[in-house]
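Sample 3 of the quickstart, ligand adenosine-5'-triphosphate:
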Amino acid sequence: MAQLDIVDVGHAYAPGIEEERWALKPLNLTFESGKTYALVGPSGCGKTTLLNILSGLVRPSQGQVLFDGADVTALPTKARNIAQVFQFPVIYKSMTVYDNLAFPLQCRRWDRARSDAKVRQVAEALDLHDRLAQPARGLTADDKQLISLGRGLVRDDVAAILMDEPLTVIDPQLKQMLRRKIREITEQFRPTVIYVTHDQYEAMSFAQEVLVMKDGRAVQQGTPEQLFEAPSSTYVGYFIGSPAMNFLTVDRDDRNFALGGRTLSVAWDIPHGTTAVEVGIRPEYIKAVTEPGPNTFPGRLRAVSDHGAQRVLEVEVAGQLLRAKTPREEGVPDGDDVLIHLPRAKVLPYADGQLVLQS
Ligand SMILES: Nc1ncnc2c1ncn2[C@@H]1O[C@H](COP(=O)(O)OP(=O)(O)OP(=O)(O)O)[C@@H](O)[C@H]1O
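Result:
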C-alpha cells in the first residue's frame, strides 16, 4: 500500500472561472500508507472530485498527485494500481465468487497456488469462504459489495482502495453489519483506504482519520475523537454529531462570561482582541441536575425525544434552545423547570464561526 499526497491540487470543471467557484480549491493533503480515511461533507462539497483526482478519472486543473512520492498526475486510472468500490457493486455476475476474487490475480499472472491461497485468505476474512463455488449473480447486494472490496484486497500491489459511498444500495438493517465487516477487514489487511460518504456517522464509525469538506475546501482533518471533542468551526460542530453541537450566545465582560446573568466558568483564554464570542458544547456533555452549583443554569424543558438507548432533552436556557443527550436510564426530570450543568472543560469558544483558543 502506498502513501498518497496531493500537492496544491485544485480543480475547476469549467476552465477560466474564478478560484472561488472551483469544485476543489487548491489544497495539500497526505493520506498515509495503511490508514483509513473518510471524506465527508454535504452534497456538492467536492468529495467525489477529490476521489476521482486520486483515481485518475479527473485530471486536476492544477497540482500534483503523488503515490509514494512518484508523480502520477498524468497517469490514467489503469496505470495507478488502485482498487475502486463504487456505489453499485461491480462484479462479474456469471463468474463464481472464487473466480471474481481470483480474476485480478490471473490478470497479474500470479501462479495458481499463490493465487489460490490469497483468494481463500480473503474469502475467509469476508465470510464468503462457504460460497466460493456459487455464481456471484445470486448473492445479496452486501455480499456483492464485499466481493468488490475483496478484489482490491487480494492484490498485494494495490496502492490504495478508493470507496465512493459503498453502502448506498445496502439495506438499512445490513448497513451496520457491513460497515463493521469492512472495518474489521481493513484492520486486518491494513490497506490505504479513502472512503467517501455524506453520512457523518458512517465516516466517524469507519475511519481512523476524517476529512470534513465544505464548498470545495477541506475544513478539518482529524481523528473521530478530535472532530467530536474540538470542532475547528461551528460548521464542523453542526455537521459532526447527532444532535449537532450546541452554540450559545453568551454575555462577555473581557475574559468573564455569563449566561442569563450567571457566571459561566470556562477552561480557556481567548486571544487578545477577539470580539464576539459564542460557546459550543456537545449535547452529550450537558446534564440535568438537581442541586445548584458552579455552571448550573435554570432552564425550561421544551421537548423530550427518544433516540433508542438515549433521550434528547430540549431545554430553553436564557432564551436559547439547548439539546442535551442523556442515557435512557437517567430518566426525564420531573416538571418543566430544570437545572442543567455545563461542564467547564467541555465548553469551547468560537468567534466568527472558528474555534478560538489561546495558544
Ligand atoms: N462532471 C462535472 N461537470 C461539471 N460540474 C461538476 C461535475 N462533477 C461535479 N461537478 C460539480 O462540482 C462540485 C463538486 O461535486 P462533487 O461531485 O465532487 O461533490 P460531492 O461532495 O461528491 O457531492 P455528492 O455527494 O452529491 O456526489 C459540485 O458543484 C458539482 O455540481
